[in-house]
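Deviation from plan, reported transparently: zinc ion complex.
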Amino acid sequence: MSKCEVINGLVSQCNALDETMDGFNPVKREKGIFKWVYTDINTSKDTRSFIGAKTGIHKEKGLIFNFCPYCGVELRKANEK
Ligand SMILES: [Zn+2]
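Because the crystal trials were delayed, the predicted structure below was used instead.
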């Protein structure tokens, strides 16, 4: 994918971002760039996903990207939590 897409709160990352990611759903002390995926445990369907970084002062909770640093697509609306 040459640009990120966000459909119904689910992010499909572009190739450049995909290659930068260290993995999915980091556990506590992991550092890097990750995709967080929330799944509805009743239906097993992914409901939301975010891409962000755990590094520096954000290594505990992580920093969610509002925009893709490569293609510039908005990954998260400003009024979303
Ligand atoms: Zn992108």
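The mean pLDDT is 93. We consider this an acceptable substitute for the interim report.
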